[in-house]
Structures are given as C-alpha cells and as structure tokens.
Amino acid sequence: MSVKIFDTPEVQQFLRAVANLDGQGGDPRTKQIVHRLMSDLFKAIDDLDITPDEYWTGIAWLNELGTAGQAGLISPGLGVDHFIDLRLDAVDEQLGVENRTPRTIEGPLYVAGAPVEHGFARLDDGSDESGHPLVMQGTVYDAEGKPAPGAQVEVWHCDTRGFYSHFDPTGKQAPFNMRRTIIADEQGRYRFRSIVPSGYGVPPGSPTEKLLTALGRHGQRPAHIHFFISADGHRKLTTQINLAHDPLVNDDFAHATRDGLVCEVVERTDEASIKAHGMDGPFGEINFDFHLTALVDGVDNQINERRVRAAA
Ligand code: DHB
Ligand code: FE
C-alpha cells in the first residue's frame, strides 16, 4: 500500500525544523544544503515507497562504507566526480575558457609529499618485476601556448597488480613508489621512466564493490596515469590519461575516460631509442603535452581544498 505524505504542511514544517531553517545559529549554507538533501530523501522515500527494511539496509551500508573509509571510492563510481567536472566545464564555457587538455577526476588515491625531481624522474623502484618499462614525456604549455619552464607535474599511478603505494593491501610497496613531482625544464619539458600500469579494481568484498554488484556493474578502471599540473599565474589542472590498449578504456567504472585523454603506448625496440632514453631493452613510449589555462580575475576559480583537508 502506497501513501503520500511529503507535501503535507506537517512534513514540510518538520523538514524546516530538521535543518533549523527558521532558528538562530548554525551555518546558513549548511542549513540550506541539509534542508534540500533531507527533502529530496524524504520525497524519494515517499515516491518509491522505500520500506523501513530498505532504509536500514542503506544505513548499515553507509556505516560499513565509513568504517572502510570508502566514501571517496564510491563517489566516482556513482558519477558525482564526473558530474562535478561537467559542471566545471560548463562554467568554463560560460567564461569562454578553453581547456585544450580536458580535466578529469582526481580519484581518491593521491598522496601529497612525493619526491621532487627536475626535468626527469624515475617513478618506480624496480620492485615490480612484471612491469614493462615505460617512458612518458612532453611539454607543459602556458595559457598563451608557450612552453612553461618550472611548471609542476605531479604524477601518480598503480603497479601491475593495480595497487597504489600507501594503499597497497599487501604492504609491499615503499612509500611514494610511482609518485613524483617533476619540475619542467627550461623548455617546459617533463620526462619520466616508470612501468606501464595495469587497470585498477575496487577492493573485493568491499562496500563499494557490493553496491556496484547490486547495480549489475563492475568496479574496474582501465590502466591510467594521474596528473596535477600547475604553474605560476595558471589554474591547477587535475587530469589523467587512459591507456588505449586497455579493453576497459571505454568502460571505466569511475567515468574518467574523456576524448583527448586516451593515449597509445608505442613500443620502441630499436637500439637508437633504447640508448637515447638510457633503457636496458624495449619499452613503451607515451608522448603527451599539457596545456594550462590562465587564472580567472587573478584567482584559480576551480581549486578545491580536498588536499588541505586530507592532510589535516
Ligand atoms: C578510484 C580509484 C582510482 O584509482 C581512481 O583513479 C579513481 C577512483 C576508486 O576506487 O573509486
Ligand atoms: Fe587511479
């Protein structure tokens, strides 16, 4: 039997009381958001006739999610991270800002404080023996299309098992393995050596995976490499590249793949290339340039404090 009580004056007044909309104190913006979100939840319970048992199943899942520290893991899976990117794109369109290098989600696995290198860095410590060597290089360009010497390239990726250092359930990786900050050289160029990462999967048996399974979805990402690119006078670019050879390149549970960010890994087997990069044998090569955008009215209008909060 379905009942509808959402639109009654009693329930509407109750929602205002829940968020203390008509009372003193508190933070007005928080009150506004909580009022809206609770109203949307009440309406969904009413419209979909969500049963008490369904509701308490959801609460148990939220507790499990929080205990596992996975709110940041399910968020991209449910598309919120990508939706926020689409909104930032729309704001830029309104401002007339062109992003020659598209933004895409940060994901939950960045760690601040990686070693800083100039021009070139080796990201992996050689311990992932099944890793195929990789060289990635390119130029960071400023908003005028000129190379940006001194630009900062923060890069992080997972190993061939799909595990990131600092989040490796086997505890095998040293801190900051496959994480570096590279300062672009006089020509705005950066270059690094690492291994070709594999795809990533959400932790098996986790609350994140359980919800995706209930939706008939998988929790896999194609192989990818994350970046923050920054330079004086420019907005920080959050992006990643996705590797074209991965069968899931267009089936990413985190919805991060975008046109302009899919890269071929070109196999180099000739002696000249091997020597030029100081490699010991065949390796994969990715060439990719980053284009930054100028500050808007002197400020980065899209920066967020997620990193500051995570460090606190
Ligand atoms: C998730 C993991 C990633 O490596 C990533 O880039 C994005 C999302 C996740 O577990 O949600
Ligand atoms: Fe990732």
TrEMBL record:
<dbReference type="GO" id="GO:0008199">
    <property type="term" value="F:ferric iron binding"/>
</dbReference>
<keyword id="KW-0560">Oxidoreductase</keyword>
<comment type="pathway">
    <text>Aromatic compound metabolism; beta-ketoadipate pathway; 5-oxo-4,5-dihydro-2-furylacetate from catechol: step 1/3.</text>
</comment>
<dbReference type="Pfam" id="PF04444">
    <property type="entry name" value="Dioxygenase_N"/>
</dbReference>
<keyword id="KW-0479">Metal-binding</keyword>
<protein>
    <recommendedName>
        <fullName>catechol 1,2-dioxygenase</fullName>
        <ecNumber>1.13.11.1</ecNumber>
    </recommendedName>
</protein>
<comment type="similarity">
    <text>Belongs to the intradiol ring-cleavage dioxygenase family.</text>
</comment>
<keyword id="KW-0058">Aromatic hydrocarbons catabolism</keyword>
<dbReference type="InterPro" id="IPR050770">
    <property type="entry name" value="Intradiol_RC_Dioxygenase"/>
</dbReference>
<dbReference type="GO" id="GO:0042952">
    <property type="term" value="P:beta-ketoadipate pathway"/>
</dbReference>
<dbReference type="InterPro" id="IPR007535">
    <property type="entry name" value="Catechol_dOase_N"/>
</dbReference>
<dbReference type="Pfam" id="PF00775">
    <property type="entry name" value="Dioxygenase_C"/>
</dbReference>
<dbReference type="GO" id="GO:0019614">
    <property type="term" value="P:catechol-containing compound catabolic process"/>
</dbReference>
<dbReference type="InterPro" id="IPR000627">
    <property type="entry name" value="Intradiol_dOase_C"/>
</dbReference>
<keyword id="KW-0223">Dioxygenase</keyword>
<dbReference type="InterPro" id="IPR015889">
    <property type="entry name" value="Intradiol_dOase_core"/>
</dbReference>
<feature type="domain" description="Intradiol ring-cleavage dioxygenases">
    <location>
        <begin position="136"/>
        <end position="164"/>
    </location>
</feature>
<keyword id="KW-0408">Iron</keyword>
<dbReference type="GO" id="GO:0018576">
    <property type="term" value="F:catechol 1,2-dioxygenase activity"/>
</dbReference>
<dbReference type="InterPro" id="IPR012801">
    <property type="entry name" value="Cchol_dOase_prob"/>
</dbReference>
